Input
Amino acid sequence: MRSALERRAWRELSRRRARSIFTVLTVAAATTALWMFAIPQLSNRAMAERVEDHQLDDVVLSPAWFDLSDRQIDELQAIPNVAGLDVRTGFVAPISFGEQRQEAFFVTVRDFGDQEVNVVTIDEGEAPGHREFLVDLQNTRSQRLTATTGDMLRLYGPSGESEEFKITGVGGSLRHSDGVRDGAPVIYITHETFEDLADAQGYSVLNFKVADRTDGQLAATLNAVRSAFEGMVGEPEYQTIPQIRPAGDWPAKESMENVTTVFYVLASIAAASALFMVYTTMNAIVREQTNEIAVMKAIGGRRRQIAWSYVRSAAIIGTLGTSLGLVVGFLMSNLLLQMASTTLMALTPGWGVSWEVAALSVLVGIGGSVLASLPAVWRAVRVPVQEALRDQGIAAGFGDGWLDRTLQRSNRLPRMTQIGLRNTARRKAASLVTALQVSLAVGIALGLLMLGATVMDAAQDWRNAEGGDIEVSDGPGVDGFESRIANVAGVADVEGVYWSTIGVGEERAAMLGLEADTTIFGKDVVAGRWFTPEEAATQARVAVIGLPLAELTGVEVGAEVAVETPGGSETLQIIGVDRNMSNDGKIVYLPIETQYDMDLRTAPNWYWVRTANQDEEYIDSVASGIANTLSSAGYQFDLEVNYIDARAARAEERLILGIIGALGIPIAAIGMIGLASAMTMTVLERTREIGILRSVGARAKDVRRMIGAEGLALATLGWVLALPVGFFSGWAMLWVIGRAFNTSFGLVPPYWAIVPSLLVALLLATLIVRRPATRAIDLSPGVALRYE
Amino acid sequence: MMSDSLPLHSSIELRDVEKVYRSGRLEYAALRGVNLQVDSREFVAIVGPSGSGKSTILNVMTGIDRPTAGTVKVFGATLNDMNEEELAVWRGEHVGIVFQFFQLLPTLTALENAMLPLDFARTGSVADRTDRAHHNLALVGMGDKPDHLPLELSGGEQQRVAIARALACSPSLLVADEPTGNLDSDTAQHVLELLAKLNTDGMTVLYVTHDRELASYADRTVTVKDGRVIDGHRPSGHGSAP
Ligand SMILES: Nc1ncnc2c1ncn2[C@@H]1O[C@H](COP(=O)(O)OP(=O)(O)O)[C@@H](O)[C@H]1O
Ligand SMILES: [Mg+2]
Output
């Protein structure tokens, strides 16, 4: 047999169905939010599988150049504990697709049909044969190179000669694909093709993986491979020390983890706001029942028994909500993961469950609901019976304070509007909580807008900063470069700049020497000033610092900063702060003449070209013109067309904005559930009052006006609170993302959204209160009057 | 029974009214064939044991509740045919209701509560409405505390404000469900005297009470038991039932 108290807990839920459903949804939202924490784990698991599939190497050896016979390679592969070993060549060469010319990264594969490590998979078309190309999947994803299966690519030789090659398919490799996002498109060819084209033999890297990497096994195997290898090729000159992949590491793990940080921040905000909603909802439920609690006490109920009965209701709600949240959370986390990993890593992971997160959501969903109800239950069971039983005992509290008196004097407003506003003021705590709910929903939406706008703006700054339309860099100390470029048809302007590195405190930064009156560089000074031609002429030690670097190092305008340059230690006076994001904003700008003096140079090492016309095809043709002029003059040079970078940057921006959007939408949805729930409960609490009004002749529109006034007042109050909430949540997200990507952002608050967000809040409030208001109006007053 | 020959001049007429409450699987017949006529300007007390259906009869009569079967006519209006909105408007014009628990709006002052039905009916200017509310408050003896909120008033005072509110639109019918239930006996007598005075001034008044002594203020006492009217005795001078 169930006790009467137990039955009360259950019936309570069915009696207030709408409210129970909202509360369950709220708990479900909180649990769902927790599932965002599962994404990193799921992605690691998916990657671990992928590492296995692709036979990712454990060690990379990069000797300058070496040759091995197939038999020698077999011998190396046979060394104990070597699970797979291969040698490859990587090189950079200019290619063009149509008129679009750029540098590409080539990787050679000895035999596509028999790869032991760093397997290059064929995802479309077929493996390249002799003198054929396979392009990486990421090339098109990053918008670096749009050529695909069946297209022809032109490859340029060192002295300008070129030949076209056919693309047989699209593929990818865990080790190499990630390189695309950092700069150049990746192309795979057979090693034979390379030997044929280069008219040379040999390899540049040796990769291997081991069967057992525990207890120094990896180091022992590395020694064995190294000594066998050195026995075969003599004393190679290594480019770097052997690169050992840490256990559990994979390429692009860092970018994935950076994105994960964004997930964590947004998930925390979502979970926190959902838990807050659970707390306020539980509070509202218990508050409504103060009268009933008093009755139970009056007939001998002990505090503990009564409290237990309410805790039980909370537990039931928690269990229902958690069950729903588990299902939705599972779906959402997997869908978001699929989205992030297909775009970021060209990888479609299988569906997975995180049992840790499942356990956590059960704990938080059920435990959180119970805990959230405790403070209210605690207070309610302590209310004196007499006070609670008086009909208006708990409803009291209007009439004191300046707000109430002001509202009482507001005789000019229509009566129903007055009642609505006074009701809002009467239950101050409840109204404030509802308004907070609104402010969370609206504020987080504003915060996400700020996040998006700031990221866009940073990307914009990045694009504006550098290079004009075409960039040409040269080997050190060549003269006549600039004048030759300037004479090419279609070149409107060319500027020489000098790029080198600098140490500021702990930070490594870029140092960019510019003309004082540069027109190609888009100055965006937010504090202080730019340097003058006079300062440039006297080689003054003055510099403008990038905003992110200034924030990371705490340097301000006017400071004297000690820096390490290639030419030695120097002291620079900071005269301004610039917001451009070149080198992620970790940069110092100074007169090129000053830099010459510091670095002992006499000529630029980088030329920025602006073309007469911004059309992409036109830029391509000017680029070919420059390339032809320079190569026929016998110069060595690298040439880059900026719109390709800009397009890749836009693709990355879209990705980040897509992720922010995909995460933002569930979070905004959670906020909306809270808003709808709070608003609906506000109206339901008025049911009895609406019954009275209908008894004394109120028409439907009178009631609607009262409810509407209350809804609009709450929405307006919520919106006012949403402004700081939005700013601080946006700031917090950007701060965390800045930390993750080791940069900082110039905040771009979405001022344009302030007024529309008020309108949206008002509209939402109006729409949301409509349904419960209609229900209360349609109720016959007899029923409404019995509603407590 | 009385159902066969209803006098045609009845202003209020309940015919074969049944009311069944359903809650879940349970059904309860609160009214089981009520027939009742009340003339214009009558002063009627409804008595009967608790749970017998007194409140239900009043609620059906004012359109606050709908009968499951039977017809309800009040001053020519057939309530069965009206929707909630029409009922609300009709009540505002013709009926004043006084509740046992007063049911004043807690955020409105005594004066504002008394004005509320006038606001709904949109009669006259705001100044006119204020005058009338003041007048009605004075009539019930509450002229001195117009700016008090309900919480600042005693139970008897709240009930008098509730009566002033019921009088706002000069209704032809005033119903009061245990108006004295929450009041001490002295205050209760004052309230009944007030109702008697309103009746003398021409209003049809029905009220529910438990108290035999308070029932004696009325011209006629209707006794309800188990959802039926068992005794509709009319004192001489008001016509009679068979
Ligand atoms: N909303 C309701 N649901 C179920 N039963 C009800 C409801 N309202 C009243 N009743 C029942 O109808 C009967 C008559 O109620 P009522 O008219 O309020 O009696 P009273 O004569 O005490 O005023 C009672 O037995 C009561 O239990
Ligand atoms: Mg009753």
